[in-house]
Specification:
One of its GO terms (biological process) is system development. This is DYW domain-containing protein. GO terms for molecular function: zinc ion binding. This protein is mainly alpha-helical. Among the domains are: about 80 residues; about 110 residues, Serine Threonine Protein Phosphatase 5, Tetratricopeptide repeat (Alpha Horseshoe), CATH 1.25.40; about 100 residues, no CATH class. About 65% of the residues lie in helices and about 0% in strands. The chain is built from 37 helices and three strands. The chain has a three-stranded antiparallel sheet with strand order 2-1-3, with helices on one face. Strand 1 and strand 2 form a beta hairpin. Helix 8 runs antiparallel to helix 9 and helix 20 runs parallel beside helix 22. The termini are far apart.
Length: about 650
């Protein structure tokens, strides 16, 4: 029985993998050892997509050609059997061709574990010099090295390529973004003198989005405005552009771009919703969710996580419950979803719900523990947070765990517990030290906080966030001299950190106002506007009444029932005064205008308007919940406590 007859016989009668395997077992050993028979059977298995039997035959073939290797690797990749590909290269008997190396580098990049790195680097180092003119091969090697974090080696390889095409540039720029080197991606982009590909646009938009500084905004907007018409129909490019605009804070421009989409899909909606969340417009995100349901688009994991973040931003319990109840039950088997839900329920103040989710997770990971510790911390349940932290496996604890537990201690005033945990931490990162500085500053222990910063700076560069934590505590304790000292130090140490200097200037201005020095506050305000512009984050308050979520800003006149709301706020204020409340003028951060009083200004705060709205909708509401994107002012906090608001 010759090999050709065997092959034809199998081809004519085998209709399944099982039949092929049965015939293979019945063939004599001599027939299977025949290279022609082996190759024929191997090709048949590959044609039938029977990769397991093909791999068995591959191991038997003694004289494997370049074609056999390439075919086997391609088949294994098609079935995502990447470890088998690495097994194959452990014992490869031939000099790999460029095609084989391209496939290998792709597998190593995707796998990206220690074994893949070892194999990928080995074959890259042993690559024939004859292959150095193969752009496709070198580009695949650059992609692999970038995923390994070997940026310098990738750069060296990039320099070898004489005639670089847009794909090669794209691989380098993508690699820089993967390694969070966004400025380098933009540097390289500015050197390109070729027509950009659709992938290149997405990469640059992503780099600009991550940086969101003046340079990135200029490059990103210019690139978007000059983009060819044929690319404007590409949803992936446009979604990248929307993400970039949202991170720039250009919500209106992102909305205009979103409206140009004739057929919106899950990617488009998720990008837009995520953007609204970033820009503190979660109500718009909820409106898009209603549109998704009308268009009968399936709720997947990505949309679910974004919706959970939306609910966490708003923090209104009824909204959280309404949205979560619409999730398919299978999503609760997804630990990533469960972790997000724990965080959401914590922010909504429903700690029991967070506990139930936590207890439903079979094997809590570090994110699960951190989310639950954080939920306790946000609700001033510091002792419960400490107890959970102590029961958390030591090997799971990471930097975020330390930050969460120290924050929990800080918000509950547990100084001894915070010190105890802080001293146990072997590797204290700048984030961990910053959290401890914040804890001490909240308790007005400024000497200890400054000492921590001083000790840190003996071996490290100064960190602006530490000073912001210190300044925030000084603001709360109204220590003008200390605040000015901290601000001047920040100006000296961080002249280019405009975002933090702007925020620090706002705090310093507020301290001056709280002490009645409105001239100094006005001077600081004018200096800030001159140097940083007039952009300050707007304080928002949300409340829900009769199924309607309403958003308020300070001095808000946008609601159709504004007159009633303000009248009710005034009535509530008068009632409080009868019970002995004295309005705290120190929370007014600007000079009073003509016809204004301390009472009228404080009654216009967003929290007051939200409370008043609850009363005009129902004279005796049984439950009032107010959530904010920023801290509550001290005078309004008194009102919230009086009404036992959540």
């Amino acid at each position: 029985m010759n090999s050709l007859f065997i092959f034809r016989r199998i081809l004519s009668i085998a209709s399944s993998s099982k039949q092929i395997y049965t015939i293979m077992t019945k063939l004599s050993q001599n027939s299977l050892n025949n290279s022609s028979t082996q190759t024929s059977l191997f090709q048949l298995c590959i044609q039938r997509h029977d990769i397991n039997n093909a791999y068995r035959l591959f191991l038997k073939i003694t004289n494997k050609s370049d074609y056999i290797y390439a075919t086997m690797i391609k088949g294994l990749i098609s079935k995502n059997m990447l470890d088998k590909v690495l097994d194959l290269f452990d014992e490869i008997k031939i000099q790999p061709s460029p095609i084989i190396l391209i496939m290998l580098f792709g597998v190593c990049a995707r796998t990206n574990n220690d074994r893949a790195k070892q194999t990928g680097r080995k074959f890259h180092n042993e690559m024939s010099k004859d292959f150095l003119n193969d752009n496709i091969l070198l580009t695949s090697a650059i992609n692999m090295l970038m995923r390994f974090g070997d940026v310098k080696k990738a750069e060296d390889l990039f320099q070898i390529i004489k005639k670089k095409d847009i794909i090669t540039y794209g691989a380098m720029m993508k690699g820089y973004t993967l390694n969070h080197m966004y400025d380098k991606a933009l540097d390289l982009f500015e050197q390109i003198q070729l027509n950009l590909s659709n992938v290149s646009y997405s990469i640059i938009f992503n780099a600009c989005a991550q940086l969101s500084n003046d340079r990135a905004k200029q490059i990103g907007r210019k690139l978007l405005d000059g983009m060819p018409e044929n690319f404007k129909e590409n949803k992936y490019i446009q979604s990248s552009a929307i993400d970039m605009l949202m991170k720039f804070g250009d919500v209106k421009k992102a909305e205009i771009l979103f409206k140009t989409f004739e057929e919106k899909d899950i990617i488009t909606y998720s990008t837009m919703m995520k953007g609204y969340n970033i820009n503190n417009e979660p109500l718009k995100s909820l409106k898009l969710f209603e549109e998704i349901k009308k268009n009968h688009i399936k709720i997947d994991e990505i949309i679910s996580v974004i919706l959970i973040d939306t609910c966490a931003k708003i923090g209104i319990r009824s909204i959280c419950e309404s949205i979560v109840n619409q999730f398919p039950s299978y999503l609760y088997n997804n630990q990533y979803i469960c972790n997000a839900l724990i965080n959401m329920w914590g922010k909504a103040g429903l700690v029991k719900n967070a506990q139930q989710i936590f207890e439903s997770v079979n094997q809590p990971d570090v994110i699960t523990y951190n989310a639950m510790i954080n939920a306790y911390g946000k609700n001033r349940m510091g002792l419960e947070a400490v107890d959970l932290y102590r029961n958390m496996p030591n090997n799971l604890r990471n930097e975020i765990s330390y930050v969460c537990i120290l924050n929990a201690c800080s918000h509950s005033g547990l100084l001894d517990e915070a010190y105890s945990i802080f001293n146990e931490i072997y590797h204290k990162t700048k984030q961990v030290i910053t959290t401890m500085v914040d804890c001490l500053s909240r308790l007005f222990l400024f000497d200890e906080a400054k000492q921590l910063i001083e000790d840190y700076e003996k071996c490290n560069a100064p960190y602006s966030v530490m000073y912001m934590a210190l300044l925030s505590g000084a603001r709360n304790s109204r220590q003008s001299h200390l605040s000015q000292e901290i601000y001047k130090r920040m100006q000296l140490l961080f002249p280019n950190e405009k975002h933090h200097l702007r925020s620090a200037s706002v705090l310093l201005c507020n301290i001056s106002s709280s002490l009645g020095d409105h001239e100094e506050a006005q001077a600081l305000r004018l200096d800030r506007i001159k140097e940083f512009g007039n952009k300050v984050q707007v304080g928002l308050s949300w409340t829900e009444v009769n199924g309607e979520v309403v958003q308020f800003t300070a001095h808000d006149q946008s609601h159709p029932r504004s007159k009633e709301i303000y009248a009710e706020a005034q009535r509530i204020s008068s009632e409080l005064i009868k019970y002995g409340h004295v309005h705290d003028a120190s929370w007014i951060t600007r000079p009073l205008r003509e016809h204004e009083t301390v009472e009228s200004v404080l009654c216009s705060h967003s929290e007051r308007l939200a409370i008043a709205f609850n009363f005009i909708e129902g004279r005796k509401p049984s439950f009032i919940q107010i959530t904010k994107n920023l801290r509550v002012c001290g005078d309004c906090r008194t009102l919230l406590v009086f009404f036992n608001c959540s």
